[in-house]
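Thread: Newbie trying to understand structure tokens

Hi all, I'm a second-year student working on a class project, and my supervisor (Dr. K.) asked me to get a predicted structure for one chain before our next meeting. I've only ever worked with sequences, so writing a 3D structure as a token string is new to me. If someone could post the tokens and maybe explain what I'm looking at, I'd be very grateful. Here's the chain:
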Amino acid sequence: MSLLNSLQERILIGDGATGTLLYSYGIDRCFEELNLTHPNEVSQVHQAYLNAGANVIQTNTYGANYIKLSRYGLEERVKRINSEAVKIARKAVANNAYVVGTIGGIHGSGIRIETKEELKRSFREQLYCLLLEDVDGLLLETYYDFDELTTVLKIAREETDIPIITNVSMHEPGVLESGIELSDAFVRLEELGANVVGVNCRLGPYHVLKALETVPIPTKAFLSVYPNSSLPEYREGKLRYKTEPAYFETYARDFRNQGVRLMGGCCGTTPEHIKALAEGVKGLAPIKKKEVRSKKRVEIAESKQPDHLTLFEKVKTRRSIIVELDTPKHLDTNKFFEGARALKEAGVDGLTLADNSLASPRVCNLTMASLVNRELDLPSLVHITCRDRNIIGLQSHLMGLHTLGVRDVLAITGDPTKIGDFPGATSVFDVTSFELIKLIKQFNEGRSLSGKSLKEKTNFHIATAFNPNVRNIGKAVERLEKKIHYGADYVITQPVFSKEKIIEISEAAKHIKAPIYIGIMPLVSTRNAEFLHNEVPGIKVPDDIRARMAATAENSEQAIQEGLQIAKELIDTAMVHFNGIYLITPFIRYELTVELSAYIQQKDQQIAETKESQFIS
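---
Reply by user tm_fold:
Sure, no problem. This is what the structure looks like when written as tokens:
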């Protein structure tokens, strides 16, 4: 009898966690490689679940794809690992259970994929390997990214007519990471040809049941659940799960009452949990109708709009000046606020506040932005790096920024910790700058990364960094286009020290509609120029500019004036091509950026007067 025919007549029991059991045997490495090196241990796992009452066994192939195996240098062994996995499972079940080929999701596993085509190629290779071994069905499990799941489901359905089980994973009960309701996701998966739709991983029985209470029994597909045994705890350097198998026996009946036809276990579950599931539904026929609990829809309020124009709105319509003023590395903030006041009086549109620039700890830029806005009524563009906060901290930080009224943020990767004061510090990089931009846009829709409602939409305008100081500016522009595709609203550049480079940027980016703030930084000495050119990533100072600064080596005041003159020449060119000027203050020498701000406004006044006289004449 086929897998689908069995599901039509009765409730089937899946197996539990393969990795958990192998780990308990003292094995802690690439579990899929064990199909080749330790086949007996893998077979013992299958046999343990069969003895516990499982009649659907999944192959030990969750991460047996090119992308995941490449972490272990095993990418050329995809075929052998998958083929052996099916053979081991087939031998273990001896025709007394169904064997389903498992293909796990990649999103959320800590692996970054550049393109969807890379994902498709990896999936197809593993899929063909499993199909060649004649599995009874496919199990697509642990997919947090619904787009990834629908992408691979379409491919699988085109290639085979065997049963396909699709299990999504939720951070929050009843809603996927993208904000899609679980019931809507199941309908979509049915439409694409899934024979079984369900959930696995992340959540334990309690929250999985809560989610299912709002889900109707599918009209064409069957329901499945593979919950974790519990939420994990971290003890003695390892993640551990509570093991209360009897708890699963009660939930087995509850799952059955929600219409579930296939139930097994995920992380932390053991043969004892699977035995409890089998005991819980023993003698019970599947149900075909149930009462669906209506889900209270959470209202998402529109965000309150600020009274003033944001920096993004200003640069779209007129000349705008923003100034980077580093927060101090110590607790004496007098000099910083002295500079902020001077820049406010100079008429700049806002400050940009770096996030521990050059990987050195400074007073929190969120705190300083809040104080500057409150005390000086001066808005800030707050930088957010991917380096210092994990995905939890980033979301908390964004909520704090919104609550304090910050509306302009710069999403950047961040300087590596090795260049800072604490080179042994750990860089987090849970996300890239691209993914951070995407996350902020999701906040603007009122949803956290998990898909949970924030109950209010944020209204961030997102700036992104652009480094034009490269040999191939075309490649840099392609990267910039990708950031804009992810949701960046406007651009600020690294400091530029060449008029020719400014013109090159204008030409290369003329098709980009996002406003650009061009970076200008006054040099203060020949040593400063040489340091920036030779030691700071992303900055190049041309030979002629370094020569001009070198000529002032014996006179520090002359060096300052030469640096200002160079900056003014660059500003003259920049003002022809760009609305936004981004001034970087060197060493908190705010008097330099005050002077340059006054120069820009004077030039704008001259331009306006010239236009007016031409109009009159």
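A couple of things are worth pointing out once you decode it. The longest strand covers residues 98-104. The chain has two domains: 3-280, 311-616. Feel free to ask follow-ups in this thread.
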